[in-house]
Amino acid sequence: MLAGRGLAPAPAATGAVPAALAAYAAGDLGAIDRLTVAQRETPFRGEVWRALRQVAPGRAVTYSELAALAGRPAAVRAAASGCATNLVALIVPCHRIVRADGGFGGYLFGTEVKQRLLAHEAAAGR
Prior knowledge:
The protein is mainly alpha-helical and 126 residues long. The protein is built from five helices and two strands.
């Protein structure tokens, strides 16, 4: 179909990130956790991002629990801000953080994607 329109298919992506994403999609939930990540960070934001990477696939924790995991239990809003400013939202998995009332809260790619990621991890973890 593409050739009939004068287009060529995109070349297959190669490298550690595409391979990890493909493995994650296929059910290897730890694949994204093995990627090295570097983002510009403040000291606490870095603690939040490291805490996010410690939340097990298929598990959801609240923003309050995330603040505690990052070493500052009273800094719930700052922990939420760490999620909101995370530029690699799947690899530093802020989709695993939910509101205290069980709601999904926000997510860089939208709450529908967050919900699907959590469902994928729950299904793959069985």
